Amino acid sequence: MLTEPILFSRYGTELLRDAILLNDPAENFDVEMSQEHNGQTAHLESGPAAGTGTSQTGHPVDRHFIWPVFNVVQSDFKLLQLWQGRVEKVGTDEFVATLFDKTHPLSSPEQVSISIEDVNLEDRELLRPGAVFYWSIGYANYYKGPRQRTSRIRFRRLVIPKRKMVERKNAAKQLATFFARH
Amino acid sequence: MPQNNSPLFLPDIKVDPPSLDELEISLFGPGRGECVVVHLGNNDWLVVDSCLDNTSSQPVALRYLENLGVDPREAVQRVVVTHWHDDHIKGISAVVEHCPSAYIYFSQALLKEEFFELLTAFYSFDARSGGKVADMIDFERPEGLTSGVSEIAKIVAHAYKHDSAKRYKRRIHYAGDSTIVFESVAPRVRIRSLSPSAKAVNSALVHFAGLVPDSVQRGVIPAQIKNHCSIALWIEFENIRMLLGGDLEQVNDPDMGWNAVLEGPNPVQGSKASVFKVPHHGSHNGHNDRVWKDLLEEDVNSILTPFYGSSNPPPTQNDLNRLLSLTDSVSITAQPKIPKKKYTDHVVQKLLSGMISERRTLVGKMGHIQIRAFDGRFSIGFDGPARQVDKRFMREFYSA
Amino acid sequence: MKYEIEGVSIVLLGSFNPVIFQPAWFVLNKILPNYDVLEQEVNIVHNQITQFRLDWLKVDVTQDRFFASTSETANYTTLRDFVVSTFAILEHTPITKLGVNKDIHCRAENEETWNKIGDTLAPKDIWQKTLREPGLTSLKIQTLRDDDLPGRINVQLAPSAQVTPYGVFMGVNHHIELDELAKDDEQTSEQLAAILENNWDALLQSADKIIETTITKAI
Question: Is C124 in a helix, a strand, or coil?
Fold first, then answer.
């Protein structure tokens, strides 16, 4: 049983006060709460995902969620342009990259030279030919505080488990055998 | 725009299919990647490499054949893959898929373990079946972010897991420095590969090994890599000869590149070529004086594509002047330089301009040069931004 | 169409040990950079639940559910990479279901348009025979998938309580039965990676298309 109330922030985000709340995995809560928010009433339902038969992988609040308010905080970054980049060459001060336009996917890729200073210090160990990065341009603090034009370069972190690095050699052998003709 | 304001009259490409005994070679190029489509007579076709049509994002070879009313499923007999990096062969796996009658020719280097190590570094192949055709996981990378080998990986994956694996496997062949790729009797046609040499294959294998990543962070293969395993093709169609130079380079080694073609054990003999697909975008890296002297007719019809992806994109002004000194007939699929992309959002445009020192657009509009030959007579047609390279062209793009 | 609020989330059902999923673990395994976790908030780490928020990422893990979401458009693919990397390392985690969700809140031009959306998708004439002033509070539709992945697509629509007045909430859930695809836990992890890498753009584009078409046609 719930021992403490669920609190809602301005945007309907819930804060779980304590893990004790979820001690009881039973799906038969019958607690109901409601809260006025902006003149509308948000009902707290508990138990399995609302609406029997709804996929459990939707509406991602695991046990308790607010219907119809969706539990998402409005992002304060307004995106204007997004590229995916591939590093081609790394120099002393600059690196060359190919940019693929994710905002206008049908337009041509471009090749650019970017200052290494624009790469976060922690990401620099990832800066090598073949590395992938995401570059976004937009406004930070779009809804609150002084707006700021912002450019963010973020390197992709997509990890290969060590086991796979060994396995791929075996797969290569198998393919080579399959295609061997002479 | 032409400086003297007089209109450019260039003959258009023909939109009907060639007649059964008519030779055609069509070269397509948008500034990144290129594609050659050849009619070998009797509605038999050859496709070399691939690039994507701007408007439909379809492989341009398939779109062109469809527009001609040719069914690629029956008509395409051979597909030759002269590059291995995605940027230069976009859509080739779709071409292979839509041309089930075609034999596919790769450089031998692409069927060796070193290349498969590179492939499996980026693609997951379920190797647990112990030699049987496995239940594979097909990794089709999202469009745009090429891993450098996704097109080859798709072809290999299909071959590996196809229901009739053996039959599919027989479609894949490798081309070396003297492989007969196609032959027919009427009309008399013979296609022979002139490269890569054995040494070039070994060099490619060493290169592949150096590209296999050792980091736990997954990356992709960068674009600026050498192509040691390019396939050059010599085509004989009745009395006409054509040399498709692929991406073959001139290197300081008698056993590699054009030197190996000219000095190798099976040099080209007999008549010279009257059509030449200039290798390596006309750059000096692909130039060999003896090729022009020994293999090409005077005033050979030279056709080439530009490449926008370098700081001094080939063909440069010097490259074109060199070509014009060797032959009067030079045609290019697209203009040698294209303007930078403009972003409609001025904030983006401003920030971008402030942050980067160099920027160049990599893919422009698709241009098409079509050469047909019948009864000893050649006709040449142009589509899109394709142009003849002449004094007017040079003034237009290289005026001081 | 302009969304006032939007977000993407990835939900996994399976068996998890929440204590593992703390920010420091992600940094140690090079899945997240340190600069991401410097400003984390609401950090609960417990054997029954772990929850933390970063600038762009929200993570919520219980013993049977893993949830990660972002409302930053620029980081949708980063979210995907985060989940793929996590379960590449935790490759023996039993995972049975995968959900990729896109949720949006948009605003109708005026009250008339707002009501028209509800009236088009849930005509009131039948309800008016027995109910006084019926109004739509939520609508859920389920459909089969049109790709070769086992599962369903679930679509929800409701008035939005976050965007007022005249707000409309729509959510698309791509529900995928991972346990039907894989024979063992290692294969599940590979299948998860394969689906998220191969299909990410297509799943989000499909969700966008469902949302835009539905609302455009309903106006």
Answer: coil
pTM for this predicted structure: 0.83
> Cis ω on the peptide bond leading into residue A68 (within 30° of 0)?
yes
Q: Pick from C78, C195, C198 the residue to mutate for testing the B interface (most B CBs within 10 Å).
A: C198
DSSP string, B296-348: EEEEEEEEE----SSSSPSS-HHHHHHHHHH-S-EEESS-S--PPP--SSHHH
CB contact under 8 A, B218 and A149: no
Select the residue from C143, C162, C197 to test the A interface by mutation, using most A Cβ atoms within 10 A. C162
Partnered with residue B79 across adjacent β-strands are B47, B104
Q: pLDDT tens, position by position, for chain C (219 residues)? A: 678 899 999 999 999 999 999 999 999 999 999 999 887 766 788 899 999 999 899 999 999 999 999 999 999 999 999 999 999 899 889 999 999 999 999 999 999 999 889 889 989 888 889 998 888 889 999 999 988 899 999 999 999 988 889 999 999 999 999 988 876 766 788 888 888 988 898 999 999 999 999 998 888
- ipTM of the modeled complex: 0.88
From the list C198, C200, C201, the residue facing B139 with the nearest CB is: C198
C-alpha–C-alpha distance, residues B319 and B312, integer Å: 11
Q: Which residues contact B198 (CB under 8 A, 6 or more apart)?
A: B176, B177, B255
Give B23-398's CATH code, choosing from 3.30.1360, 3.60.15, 3.30.2010, 3.30.70. 3.60.15
Return the bridge partners of A84, or none. A100, A134
Q: What is the CATH number of domain A78-155?
A: 2.40.50
Scanning B254-283 for CB atoms below 8 A from A yields: none
Angle of the B113-122 helix axis to the B198-211 helix axis, nearest 10: 30
